[in-house]
Every structure is written in C-alpha cells, then in structure tokens.
C-alpha cells in the first residue's frame, strides 16, 4: 500500500477535519494515510520548498506555490463576521509604529495586517507564543489565530478585528479566506482526484458525526480546549462551508489575491479556479 502523509496544523479544526481518516471511518483503496501536525507558518515554508505532497496552507501563500501545488476544494476555513484578532493589553494606546507579533510571514492575517498597518514593527513567532509575548510586554500587540481567539487572557482586549480589516480592504460582504489544503502537482492527476474525493468525504463524515468525533478528540487529548469551546470553535472554522468550496468562497479567494497583488505581495494576478484539479478528468477518461 502507498503511504501518504497529510500535513496539517495542530489546531482543532484541522484535526477534526482529518481524523475521520485517522480513526478509520474513511479510507482509500491501496492507500495508507499518516499525518503530521505543525504550526501554520512551518507548513507554509515547507510548501514553498515542496516538502509535502498534501499540506495545509494559508490562502495568502498560494500564489507563491501555484506552479507546484493545486488548491483542494475541501478542508477550508473562512471567517464569516469573525476571524483573527489584533489584541493588546487593556487600556494601552498603541503608537503608530507599535511592535506586533504575527504568526508567520506567509499567513493570511499577516498579509492583511501589514497592508492595514504599514508603519508597525513586525516580528514573527509561533502562534502559541503570541498571547504571552503581549502579556509580558515583549510586543505591544499581537494577532491571535486558531483557538486563541476564544480563550485569550482577561488582561487583553481587542484593538481590531481582522474581519473588519478584511471588509475595509475587500469592499464587500465576502467571507474571509484563511486556510485550506494544497496537493503537489507531482501526483498523477487521477490519483490527485481520488485524494481530493477522500478528503472531502472525511470532512463530510466529520460533520455528520460531529458530536462523536469531538468526544473522541477530547478523550484522547488531541485538542487544547474544553468541550464547550471546541463545539463553538468548530462551528466557526470546520463547519458545513468547509466541506467544499462555494462560488462565494471562490470570489473571496480571488479578492484576497487581488488585494495582495495590488499591494505588491504577488508578481501576478491569480484566479484560483485556474489552478484547481480538473475533477471532470476522471469522468472523461472513463467515458
């Protein structure tokens, strides 16, 4: 059997969307899946180097890897009136050139933040370290992602919602594209189509059995949050809109790429649908 590694982040939504495979609820013929969890910037950097065949990425990274990876239509996370948060200590007034901690150069939140706050002094660190860095005064502010947006310390307050920054830049009501999965173009097309179908089924099965799967993740200490927080968090980032990309989500990703191109983050304008796996290939090939 071919062994295939899925690289994803350690946050609860990625774990939830993958573990229907890990627990054997979903499988693929002649294929054995394994997984590795790494922070999102590490995954972005390894995608730039082409180290993983199937890898979770920040949407903002994709134009940099479009020649080597195709975006998958499944296991996507968007914000809908919510998202990462710019936080600071309560009562602190930020200067124009405040020092801020971001979770990685190629993350979606980092690109949007740098556009919105061009005079800030940016430092990058693991997303798990950002909250404490603000509390310790090592930075003036930080952008919280993943579960931290629900669990941050009471001594902190929100300076700005990334959702509001997105709305100001996008200029319309579009969901905020945060992260998804990409698959190496070195994989034969018919096999890549099978991988996408299997991962899509895994997210669907996870959603269909949310309560049972969540309980299993909690019992095995596979997530960092309690049951109530997990339930709320999954409805934010691993919901029914995560199963397969909608036309509205395609428009949102294209808008993100347009904004990045306009502000000099990309050297060309990318339309995400131009780089998807042609799922119809298998039907045509077998017809």
TrEMBL record:
Keywords: Ligase, Lyase, Menaquinone biosynthesis. It holds the Pfam family VitK2_biosynth. The keyword Kinase does not apply. The active site is at 146 (proton acceptor). GO terms for biological process: menaquinone biosynthetic process. HAMAP family: MqnD (MF_00996). Belongs to the MqnA/MqnD family. MqnD subfamily. PANTHER family: 1,4-DIHYDROXY-6-NAPHTOATE SYNTHASE. This is 1,4-dihydroxy-6-naphtoate synthase. It comes from Candidatus Sulfurimonas marisnigri.
């Amino acid at each position: 059997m071919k062994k295939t590694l899925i690289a994803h982040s350690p946050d609860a939504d990625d774990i939830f969307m993958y573990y229907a495979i890990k627990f054997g609820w979903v499988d693929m013929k002649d294929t054995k899946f394994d997984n590795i969890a790494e922070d999102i910037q590490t995954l972005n950097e390894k995608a730039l180097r082409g180290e993983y065949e199937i890898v979770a990425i920040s949407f903002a990274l994709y134009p940099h890897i479009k020649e080597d990876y195709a975006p998958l239509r499944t296991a996507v996370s968007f914000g809908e009136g919510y998202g990462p948060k710019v936080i600071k200590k309560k009562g602190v007034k930020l200067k124009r050139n405040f020092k801020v901690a971001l979770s990685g150069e190629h993350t979606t939140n980092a690109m949007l933040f740098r556009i919105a706050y061009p005079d800030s002094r940016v430092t990058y660190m693991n997303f798990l370290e950002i909250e404490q860095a603000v509390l310790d005064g090592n930075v003036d502010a930080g952008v919280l992602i993943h579960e931290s947006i629900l669990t941050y310390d009471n001594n902190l307050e929100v300076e700005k919602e990334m959702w509001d920054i997105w709305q100001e830049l996008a200029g319309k009501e579009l969901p905020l594209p945060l992260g998804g999965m990409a698959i190496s173009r070195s994989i034969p097309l018919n096999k890549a189509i099978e991988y996408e179908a299997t991962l899509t089924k895994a997210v669907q099965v996870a959603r269909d059995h949310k309560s049972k799967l969540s309980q299993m993740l909690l019992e095995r200490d596979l997530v960092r949050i309690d049951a109530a927080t997990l339930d709320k968090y999954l409805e934010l980032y691993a919901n029914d809109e995560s199963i397969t990309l909608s036309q509205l989500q395609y428009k949102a990703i294209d808008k993100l790429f347009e904004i990045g191109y306009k502000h000099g983050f990309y050297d060309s304008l990318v339309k995400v649908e131009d780089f998807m796996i042609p799922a119809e290939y298998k039907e045509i090939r077998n017809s």
